[in-house]
């Protein structure tokens, strides 16, 4: 998957690297702003007892 | 091997293009496992460092909205019968000058420990009453209300504000117990050195070790004084804030 992504990204090595950084930032933003909060509410949605 | 005939009779031989091998199942599984590992690590970072701080801040802000002089008043302790009824506010200078949390009835995650911060054990005494005013808070995650409970030492005070009074409790003792040891919130805790009937105790409970949660940390305090709210906040607390 990662190798495939590296191959299909256009441009020279430095351009590819920049695209990888941008894609990673996009993925992180998606995870931290949408996926993790949703996952958190899903995991702790039931009334629980404990500390 | 392929070749091309040129008009002058010479042959150009083309080197074969190496075939790109298909990714093996092992490679795919390996990459998936690495991806899952990275995602779990990122989620742990989110839970411990980001979500925890966001919730702590929300709980502090919520606490600042309540008070006997604020728009949002507490429910009188004697009337706080339902889960989530907010009847007091706690100040613990040892946890930081800005630290403050509301105290609500019940010790369930929702809506008490996760959203409000500190929960009161049903059937334990109310602030200032004879017996044991027992409360619980998260140690880590969801704001970690009692994250620094282990830092409480002799000489520390905990201040509890209700509609009518300020209650000042002084630190007595800390103990690590098993989760099954519910005797720690009895009116006269048997493991509290020198405990006697007729006294007004406070018990703070949380999980330990932090993020492991296999045991419980218990801090006992004793009522030192009661101040009517009309007399203003305790002077020591004003100095801290």
Question: What characteristics describe this protein?
Answer:
heterodimer; A: 51 residues; mainly alpha; 75% helix; B: 241 residues; alpha+beta; 8-stranded mixed β-barrel; two-stranded antiparallel sheet; 10 strands
Distance, first to last CA of chain A: 40 Å
| Structural Rg of chain A | 18 Å
Strand tally of chain A: 0
- The portion of residues assigned to helices of chain A is over 70%
**Helix and strand string of chain B, N-terminal first?**
EEHEEHEEEEEEH
Main sheet properties of chain A: none
Largest sheet of chain B: 8 strands, mixed, barrel
> What's the number of helices of chain A?
2
User: Helix and strand succession of chain A?
Assistant: HH
Q: Please state the oligomeric state of the protein chains shown.
A: heterodimer
Structural class of chain B: alpha+beta
User: How many beta-strand elements of chain B?
Assistant: 10
Instruction: Bin the strand percentage of chain A.
Output: under 5%
Overall 3D shape of chain B: elongated
Q: End-to-end span of chain B in angstroms?
A: 86 Å
Unreliable runs of chain B, pLDDT <50, ≥5 residues?
Answer: none
Produce a short descriptive summary.
Chain A is mainly alpha-helical. Helix content of chain A is 75%, strand content 0%. Chain A has helices at residues 2-8, 13-43.
Secondary-structure topology with pairs:
The complex is a heterodimer of chains A (51) and B (241).
Chain A: H1 2-8, H2 13-43
Chain B: E1 3-5, E2 11-13, H1 25-65, E3 86-91, E4 100-105, H2 109-116, E5 117-120, E6 131-137, E7 157-161, E8 165-177, E9 200-208, E10 215-228, H3 235-240
Parallel strand pairs in B: 4-5, 6-9
Antiparallel strand pairs in B: 1-2, 3-4, 3-7, 5-6, 7-8, 8-10, 9-10
Written overview of the protein:
The complex is a heterodimer of chains A (51) and B (241). Helix content of chain A is 75%, strand content 0%. With 51 residues, chain A is mostly helical. Chain B is an alpha+beta fold. In chain B, the strands form two sheets. Chain B has an eight-stranded mixed barrel. The radius of gyration of chain B is 29 Å and the shape is elongated. Chain B starts with a strand and ends with a helix. Chains A and B meet through α1 and α2 of A and α1, α2 and β9 of B.
